[in-house]
Automatic annotation (TrEMBL):
It comes from Clostridium thailandense. GO terms for molecular function: magnesium ion binding; ribulose-bisphosphate carboxylase activity. Pfam families: RuBisCO_large (PF00016), RuBisCO_large_N (PF02788). Residues 23-140 form the Ribulose bisphosphate carboxylase large subunit ferrodoxin-like N-terminal domain. Residues 150-430 form the Ribulose bisphosphate carboxylase large subunit C-terminal domain. It comes from the Bacteria. Belongs to the RuBisCO large chain family. One of its GO terms (biological process) is carbon fixation. Transmembrane segments: none annotated. This is Ribulose 1,5-bisphosphate carboxylase.
Length: 444
């Protein structure tokens, strides 16, 4: 029998132990008359025990334990008759298949780089191969700590339980001194922001902005604001840097008083995030920024889906994770955005939920829509709509708190704006979702 058709390599779903396999779901394109079993098996063999031709040491015993197992191939649409294929598909057309391939956990264990080498690997150089999802068995996930704090831990630190949380990114993004940043920090904090973070573009030490001085001045601003507003403020300091400097940056920030740290996850790598999250000395929440991740996900026929990256970021310990929304600057599918939120918050064996952090052009007029999508266990990521408020950052923050309060009470934002000047000014400038095109605000 041709090895590509062997029941050993093409078992029934019911004939495998799923706790021994990480099951990747691929979208795979093939030519009109290409054999999909051979196509998918070629991928599975290439990524596990074999190569493009038989090799002597790849015995049946090796294949049984360590070769990929193809447990499902489904064409879309689901053709049964060749006559329909001949009629429907052009001679130079592409047929698409959803394929489910199980990779032995023994090949990977808890090694994230080896996971990428195995499930993505060389095959990402092929046209029309996309990773849609990976199902991780408990035997694999149990070796990951996941979020140290998660949703409940962050709420406990802030003492806020009955409403969404509000974040602000300091603007301008970079190029400012610690003194300038602390002034902006104070204004946003005293206006009612819960978590203030550095932008993704200012990480570690900069020639114009020292990490420890930034932390000390911003935490002093937080303490001053907290006394006035009667609430706590968390500061997510961006420690992003070369991997060799990350833990030193983290400890310098914590020793300087930081109560949260932030990293650009796909710049430093998921394994680097994991090493920070699982270090017992790093005893503050970690905010994960998603920048650069979209370069993996944006093609519909290549790369990897946002669902996979969200799962992995949660597994590797992000306490809160930025998810770009479809209603602001970015033209994302609402379905994928909502899926990322439930991937953060749904049960994932024993891992704590990651707090969804929604950003990308959030304005007060979007709050009702965002809460309808995500509920109250969410962190609203706001930058320019606080610092760009014409009455100043304090007013910008108060406008958001007013919008949040109204949305939670089921009051329309336009009604709430009648008695709140800060909110009225925001809605007048940036609009309200459902009443006008909020997208007009964004140049990209």
């Amino acid at each position: 029998m041709n090895r590509f058709y062997s029941p050993m390599l093409n078992p029934n779903y019911e004939g495998v132990n799923l706790d021994d396999l990480c099951v990747a779901t691929y979208l795979i394109g093939a030519t009109k008359y290409e054999d999909p079993i051979v196509k998918v098996q070629s991928i599975g063999i290439e990524q596990t025990t074999g190569s493009w031709t038989d090799v002597a040491a790849e015995t049946d015993e090796v294949r049984a334990l360590y070769a990929a197992k193809v447990i499902g191939i489904y064409e879309v649409p689901d053709y049964e008759n060749m006559e329909n294929v001949k009629k429907d598909i052009p001679e130079d057309g592409t047929r698409f298949y959803v394929a489910r391939v199980g990779y032995p956990v023994a090949n990977i264990e808890d090694n994230i780089p080896l996971l990428f080498a195995t499930i993505l690997g060389n095959i990402t150089a092929l046209p029309n191969v996309r990773i849609m999802d990976i199902d991780f068995p408990e035997s694999f996930v149990s070796k990951f700590q996941g979020p140290k704090f998660g949703i409940q831990g962050i709420r406990d630190l802030l003492g806020v339980y009955n409403r969404p949380l509000l974040n602000n990114m300091i603007k301008p993004c970079t190029g400012y001194t610690p003194e300038v940043g602390a002034g902006l920090f104070y204004e946003a904090a005293v206006g009612g922001v819960d978590i203030i973070k550095d932008d993704e573009l200012i990480g570690g030490d900069r020639s114009f902005n020292n990490l420890e001085k930034r932390v000390q001045m911003n935490m002093a601003a937080a303490a001053k604001a907290d006394k006035i507003k009667g609430e706590k403020t968390m500061y997510a300091v961006n420690i992003t840097d070369e991997v060799s400097r990350l833990k030193d940056n983290a400890m310098r920030a914590i020793n300087a008083g930081a109560n949260c740290i932030m990293v650009d996850t796909f710049g430093i790598g998921l394994s680097a995030l994991r090493s920070l999250a699982e270090d017992p000395k790093i005893n503050v929440p970690i905010l994960s920024h998603c920048c650069f991740g979209a370069s993996w996900t944006v093609s519909p026929y290549q790369g990897v889906s946002s669902t996979v990256l969200t799962k992995l970021t949660r597994m590797c310990g992000a306490d809160t994770l930025l998810i770009e929304m479809p209603y602001g600057k970015f033209d994302l599918l609402p379905f994928k955005y909502r899926k990322s939120i439930t991937t953060c918050t749904g049960k994932f064996y024993d891992l704590k939920p990651t707090l969804p952090f929604v950003g990308g052009g959030v304005v007060p007029g979007l709050i009702s829509k965002i809460l309808d999508d995500a509920g109250n266990d969410i962190l609203l990521g706001v930058g320019a709509a606080i610092h760009g408020h014409k009455m100043g950052p304090q007013a910008g923050a108060r406008a958001f708190r007013a919008a949040m309060d109204a949305a939670m009470k089921g009051i329309s934002l336009s009604e709430a704006a009648k008695t709140n000047e800060e909110l009225r000014v925001s809605l007048e400038k940036w609009g309200t979702y459902g009443e006008e095109t909020v997208k007009k605000n964004y140049a990209i």
